[in-house]
Structure formats: C-alpha cells, structure tokens
Amino acid sequence: MAKMFPIVTVDWLQAHLSDPQLVVIDCRFALMEPTVGQQQYQTSHIPGAHYLDLNRDLAAPVTQHGGRHPLPDVEQLAAKLTAIGIHSDPPTLVIAYDDSRFAFAARLWWLLRYLGHDCVAILDGGFQAWQTAGYAVTAKMPTPRSGCFVPQPQWQQVVDIDTVKIKKDLPGVVLVDSREGDRYRGEREPIDPIAGHIPGAVNYPWQEVTNEQGKVKPITDQQSRWVSVQDAEEVLVYCGSGVTACVNLLSLELAGIETGKLYAGSWSDWCSYLGEGGS
Q: SS3 breakdown of the chain: % helix, strand, coil, rounded to 5?
C-alpha cells in the first residue's frame, strides 16, 4: 500500500465526506480533563465521525513502568478499528482530527502507520478549521459499520528504554525531546514526578510543527527545521508519554526523513526508573 500524503484540508474532506471508503475519527482530548474530549464529541462533531479516546482506545492501562500512555494492545485496537468500519484490504482511508494542533490525531496517525495501515491522514487545522469554514457539524452518532482490520505491526518503528540507553550516544543517532523548552530544561514539570530530560537529547518542541491556528507549516519549514538531523541513521523521538512525539514524527515524514522512531514510554517511562539505579 502506498503511503498517502499525511495532511488533508477541510475543503478536501468536505468534498469526500460521503465516500464509503472513508472513515473519520475524532481524537479530541484534554490531558488534565480526560472526559472533555468525548463530551465535546457528543455535543458536536464532523458528520459521520467516530470517537476514539486517548486513554481508553489509543493507550494501554498504566503500570509501574512503560510511561503514562503505553501503546495499546494490538488486537484490542484492531477490534475497535474493525468495529468502526476500517478495512485493511482494500484499505479504508482514515482521516483523524482534534483541536490541539495534531497532539492526539497524530497519535492515531502514527498508530495506524505502525500497524501497517498507511492510508491515513490528519485534518489540517482540526475541528476549529472545519467550523471556521462553515461546514456542518452534528451531535448524531454515526451509523454502525463493520470492517476487517488486520494489523501488521512494524516493530522496528518503536524503541524501548534499553534500546535508547544503548543507542542514544552512538554516532549517527539523534535523540529528540519533543516537549516545550522549559520542560526539556527542567524548569517546569506539570505532570511527571521528576523534571529534566534524557542525557544527550536535543529539543524540538512539537508545537513548532503547526502555527497558532493549528495549521501545518509549509514543507520547506519542516525541512529546514530538521536540517541538522537529515543525515542521521536513526532519530529516536520522545515526549512526556509518547503522544505529542508523534507530531514530530509527522514533521519528519513531511520533511522526507524516514529514520524516525518512537520511544513509546518517553520521559514518563525513563524517569520511572530513576532512583532504582537507572540513569
């Protein structure tokens, strides 16, 4: 299956909304208020859109290690994707959106790619852009559909803490921290118990991928942003819990750099070992 361009406009989606080979997924979420996203969806969403919740659908339950948003169980997620009408063959086109500058839609985009489904894109500007364009919204739940999603995990796209420790200081490997600069520097830590960053990491805040309206910046901006890592053999990307790091993986894709991998546990996993003899 050929990879599709990872961004679509609201005008494109409006023109294709009735396509039976298309499934739209609302990924709105708020980390500090985890029920808000689904409440927003139930109140108003793009017609036909299904809802997937970051905590319940796009992550596994939290344990001592593994981070705040461990990757979901492959078979459980596949069953959920099947239940909302997504097929692997022929591939259903999946469009994901949020209202958080791709923070949560990119997690679904990356997960689908990780599971071998490349026919997926993110709505540029998200729900706000859809509303600003004057397109219809609804509170009506979508008609149930049945699909057949067969996962083909691309295990090489993920690294764990042991791999990060082994590789992070090797020539040709770049470790990228996707959090805001003050969290990277350890000046502020609103979520995790320990502030700071993984030694050797460089900081590329995920918000730089879009503008303040949540629209993706031009390809030339994405390319210039990553010019210092374009020749790296591997770019290992993390954030707080493996969610917003996916926005940087999207940016790398837009820049034409295909060496990006997700440290899924991210800082929340790394710091869970600190004090246990970890480093």
A: 30, 15, 55
Fold: same for 7-132 and 155-270: yes
Identify whether 271 is a catalytic site residue: no
What percent of the chain lies above the pLDDT cut of 70? 97
Q: Rounded distance, CA 63 to CA 78, Å?
A: 22
Stretch (H or E) spanning 36: helix 36-43
Q: Domain 7-132 adopts which CATH fold? A: Oxidized Rhodanese; domain 1 (3.40.250)
Cis peptide bond prior to 171, omega within 30° of 0 = no
- pLDDT, tens digit, 9 for 90 and up, residues 68-100: 999 999 999 999 999 999 999 999 999 999 999
Summary count for the chain: helices (H), strands (E): 10, 10
What residues are paired with 176 via a beta bridge? 202, 237
Number of neighbouring beta carbons within 10 Å of residue 154 = 13
Could you tell me the sign of the dihedral formed by the alpha carbons of 38, 46, 21, 102, in that order? negative
Strand pairing category for 234-238 and 260-263? parallel
CATH number of 155-270: 3.40.250.10
DSSP state of 91: B
CA distances to 25, 64, 237, 241, 246 from 173, in Å: 34, 28, 11, 21, 18
Residue with token string 């997926």: 120
Catalytic option among 27, 239, 246, 271: 239
